[in-house]
Amino acid sequence: MTRRVSHWIDGKPWAGVATRSGEVFDPATGRVRAHVDLAGPAEVDEAVAAAARAFPAWRDTALSARTRILFAFRQLLDARKDELAALVTAEHGKVAADAAGEVRRALENVEYACGAGQLLKGGFSENASTGVDVYSIAQPLGVVGVISPFNFPAMVPLWFVPNAIACGNTVVLKPSEKDPSAAILVAELFAAAGLPDGVLNVLHGDRDAVDGLLAHRDVKAISFVGSTPVARYVYETGTRHGKRVQALGGAKNHMVVLPDADLDQAADAAVSAGFGSAGERCMAVSVVVAVDPVGDELVARIADRIAGLRVGDGRSPDSEMGPLVTAAHRERVESYVVAGVAAGARLVVDGRDVTVDGAAGGFWLGPTLFDRVEPDMSIYTDEIFGPVLSVVRRPSLDAALELVNANPYGNGTAVFTGDGGAARRFQHEVEVGMVGVNVPIPVPVAYYSFGGWKDSLFGDSHAYGPEGFHFFTRTKVVTARWPAERAARPGSARPDLA
Ligand code: NAD
């Protein structure tokens, strides 16, 4: 008997019997560690109904009471962060240090949401016309759906949930069915922090659950993070059903290395950003653009560092890179290595030969490095989402910018250089939402917002930070005129004041 991971509805574990379930693996051993219930229409209705029932009281709960719960949740999350990180490693496979980093970034978002009192202040214009005041109020939307991917099972839900509930919404969270347990621990900690029943519900499932949320008339908004084809589908379907949707998609992130860059710093960055979390990050660097003449030297330094990278079970403190999330995903990533060789790219390091410090059944694939990759090869055009790094060579900064801007994705990018003028031009001209200057993974801190351009985001609001608060509220503007104070009007003096 394996463990069962079930929904969390109305403040408690779901007591029903699921008609469908999925397998949850331990990627470092390849064994099934749990079965997860997969929701059908009845469970979607149940979760949305719980959230809808909880909404009127939650939206009327004093802002100070809402933020007190967020502060309490923040304390509990901090106290239990190791447990949450261990769950992430057990089901996703990323090494302990990566999992701890994920939880740290999640905590930052909770801390931001604790400032709701400040963030929800509206504007006020006295005497916009004589005796007329105009002011704005930010109100919650109602029930919102949050649909998250497998690669950050703790952090991505916590990009949205704290901000959504801080604004007075209630939530149905549909985490990835590949690593569902972290979301349940989050819901338990919220309950322990005093969040009323029904304000946060966790619904496990796959496409059926997503479709149910997209079509449900009581769901007012959807925050989605996942691959580009699904993000596009979620955006189109959700908006067709009249919902507010932000749908963050996939990526192909380029790191441009100019000839005057510190090559050791650039090589370190390429390895940590290319292979950290086994390349399963939407902000992973998957393309290094080496601007002539640094190509040979840079490739040699990256290859040297890869040779020292320890691949193994994420629970071991010695491991620096873990397995891929499932056997099917591992096969898909490996098929790109085959395709890259067939297309004529130079395979500098072959991850299929890796020696692993872990169980034979794990979903292992070592860091792989290709050089002399061309833009028409599938290893360049497709998001591989694994430990495969491609080096493309370009003759100049102009040619590098042209390459980055021609790519349909626009999530993250970085430039490595010692020249401030070149960096400034790059940040100005590059058509990408998040830019690093000598920083390979420029994930914005919680008080900025996270989001890519082009096929990396559908909708007009980025995630978390100020744009997150904007997404989870709608503004009402009141224009008010009051008659003059009664006591001042002739013949209308109040007897109690006389
Ligand atoms: P995915 O698109 O397969 O799944 C994301 C979510 O959608 C999951 O909850 C899943 O159950 C659901 N889903 C899957 N297929 C669906 C379908 N056909 N219809 C409706 N719902 C469906 O993504 P994933 O493999 O879990 O995550 C990896 C992807 O997410 C990568 O492309 C990565 O770049 C992207 N990602 C993007 C960001 C970002 O901020 N832009 C952040 C993290 C991950």
UniProtKB/TrEMBL annotation:
The keyword DNA damage does not apply. GO terms for biological process: L-valine catabolic process; thymine catabolic process. Residues 20-478 form the Aldehyde dehydrogenase domain. InterPro entries: Ald_DH/histidinol_DH (IPR016161), Ald_DH_C (IPR016163), Ald_DH_CS_CYS (IPR016160), Ald_DH_N (IPR016162), Aldehyde_DH_dom (IPR015590), MeMal-semiAld_DH (IPR010061). Its EC number is 1.2.1.27. Keywords: NAD, Oxidoreductase. It comes from the Bacteria. It is an enzyme of class 1 (oxidoreductase). The keyword Lipid metabolism does not apply. GO terms for molecular function: methylmalonate-semialdehyde dehydrogenase (acylating, NAD) activity. NCBIfam families: MMSDH. This is methylmalonate-semialdehyde dehydrogenase (CoA acylating).
